[in-house]
Amino acid sequence: MRGAEKRTAAMRRAVKRPTDKRKVAVRRALTRLLAQLTHFGIQQALSCVFPVVIFASLALTRYIPLPLLPRYDWLLVICLLMQWWMLRSGLETKDEMKVIALFHLIGLALEIFKVHMGSWSYPEPGYFKVFGVPLYSGFMYASVASYMCQAWRRLRLELVKWPPFPLVVPLAAAIYLNFFTHHYWVDIRWWLTGLVFIVFWRSRVLFEVNGSRYRMPVALSFVLIGFFIWVAENIATFFGAWQYPDQAGAWRLVHTGKLSSWFLLVIVSFLIVATLKLVKGRRPRTAQTLSGEGPMQTM
C-alpha cells in the first residue's frame, strides 16, 4: 500500500508541476502586459501636453472669469504662451512648429466656413474673432498635429509600406475639400473612407514601447485617433469651446456621425506630419520605409 501511495503522490506532483509553471508563465505575461500598457499610456499622456493645457484652460475660464479680456481672447493668449514654451523648452522643433502652424491655418479656414454654414457656432464675445470664429480655435486643430509630432518622437514611429505620395496627396486633398463641397454637392465621405482602407490596406505603423517593437495597421490608428478626438470634442463642447445647434438649450453628447469626420481629418494631419518626417529624415532606410519600398521590420 505504501508503494502505491508513493506512486500516486509522485504522479500528483508531476501533474501539478507543469500546472504551476503555466500559472507562473501566465502571471509573468500579464505583469509584462500591464507594464507595457502603463508605459504606453504614460508616453501617450506626455504627447498630449498641448491638448491637456487647452482642456484645462477651457475648464478654468468656464468657471473662473478672468479680467480685462473676454474668455475666447484669454484662451488665445494661453495657447500662444503654450506654443512659445514648447518651442523654447525643446518639446517642439522649429520645423514641427511650422507644420503645426500650417494645420492651424487649415483648421481655421475650415472653422470659418463651417460657422458660416451654421454647422456650429462660437456664441461668446471676443476681440480676436475672424468672421465669427475666435483665433484660438485653430490651436485645437494644431494640438492634434502637436500630439502626432510628440508621439512620433516618443514612440519612435516608422511607417512601413506607405503608399506613394502621388496617391496619398490627392486622397487627402479630396477628403479636405469634401468638408466644403458636401454642403453644395453630394457627400462622398463614405466613398473616401472606403478608398482610405483600400489605399492603406498594407500600411503598418511601427512603434516602440519600453524597448519592444510593435506594429499596427495604419487605418486602425486613424480610427483610434479619430475616436479619442471625438471624446475630446465632447469634453470641449461641455466646457463651451464651441456649440452645435442641438446643444443650444443644454449640452448633449456630440453625434456619433462626427466620428467619420474626425477619422478622415486625421489622415490630412497624419500626411502632413509624415511628409515632415520623410523630408527631415533623409536617411535611406527611413525614406524607403516611409515610401513603402523597404522591407518589413522583424518584430
Structural summary, described in words:
- Helices cover 68% and strands 6% of the residues.
- The chain is built from ten helices and five strands.
- The chain has a three-stranded antiparallel beta sheet. Strands 1-2 form a two-stranded antiparallel ribbon.
- Helix 1 packs across helix 5, helix 5 (137-154) packs across helix 9 (258-281) and helix 6 (165-181) runs antiparallel to helix 7 (189-199).
- It starts with a helix and ends in an 8-residue tail after the last helix.
User: What's the main sheet like?
Assistant: 3 strands, antiparallel
* Terminus-to-terminus distance: 55 Å
Helix content range: 55-70%
Low-confidence region ranges: 283-299
What Rg do the Cα atoms give?
Answer: 25 Å
The helix tally amounts to 10
Q: Calculate the mean pLDDT score and round it.
A: 80
Summarize the structure.
This protein is mainly alpha-helical and 299 residues long. It is 68% helix and 6% strand. It contains 10 helices and 5 strands.
Features:
5 strands, 299 residues, disordered C terminus, 10 helices, mainly alpha
Helix/strand layout:
Layout: H1 2-47, H2 49-63, H3 71-89, H4 94-116, E1 129-130, E2 133-134, H5 137-154, E3 158-160, H6 165-181, H7 189-199, E4 204-209, E5 212-217, H8 218-238, H9 258-281, H10 284-291
Antiparallel strand pairs: 1-2, 3-4, 4-5
